[in-house]
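Example for tutorial group B:
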């Protein structure tokens, strides 16, 4: 006859299982992560969470349409021919709050160079997202992705393990760079300097 495990044993088993799962996730991310052994990427200033894809080996960004937080329709195709910074975020995400002012500062610096910024608001409510936008003075549009459909499409071509994730899409619609995790001013501007350069 099978007996139920004591509570303490069950807790130990659950903790061990969580640790094993976390270890597996780390291995998967290291092997699938851009720069994790691939010759098609380079890290930005030695940071493995910020990468540049080699020209000719850049994944094509999936096309998408969505409704912005203000209720208008937006299609990614309207950005073709421009460098785009695409930020996956949520109002519930603490690191997203930490990077919001950095994104606003970089957007202000690169707007005159024709760089467009766009957000994908993941698993959020419109009211919470709009409050976030107002609080951090986000001056660019975001489309809602409550069911994570857009995020899933991008996860098929780049390893988006969570929010925040920031992608830099080149003028041809290919993903040229990425920051997995909280973006820093130096990492994002280093990527943009390469991508906005002639032929970048």
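The residue assignment follows.
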């Amino acid at each position: 006859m099978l007996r139920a495990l004591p509570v303490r044993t069950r807790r130990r088993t659950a903790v061990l299982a969580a640790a094993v799962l976390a270890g597996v996730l780390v291995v998967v991310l290291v092997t699938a992560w851009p720069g994790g052994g691939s010759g098609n990427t380079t890290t930005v200033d030695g940071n493995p969470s910020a990468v540049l894809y080699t020209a000719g080996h850049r994944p094509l960004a999936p096309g998408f349409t969505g409704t912005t937080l203000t209720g208008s329709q937006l299609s990614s195709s309207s950005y073709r021919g421009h460098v785009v910074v695409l930020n996956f975020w949520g109002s519930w995400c603490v690191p997203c709050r930490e990077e919001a002012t950095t994104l606003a500062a970089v957007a202000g610096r690169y707007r005159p160079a024709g760089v467009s910024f766009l957000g994908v608001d993941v698993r959020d409510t419109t009211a919470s997202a709009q409050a976030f936008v107002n609080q951090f003075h986000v001056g660019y549009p975001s489309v809602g992705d409550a069911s994570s459909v857009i995020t899933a499409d991008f996860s098929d071509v780049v390893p988006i393990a969570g929010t925040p994730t920031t992608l830099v899409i080149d003028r041809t619609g290919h993903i040229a760079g990425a920051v997995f995790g909280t973006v820093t001013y130096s990492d994002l501007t280093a990527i943009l300097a390469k991508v906005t350069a002639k032929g970048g």
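The first strand starts at residue 41 and ends at 44. Compare this with the pattern of hydrophobic and polar residues in the output above.
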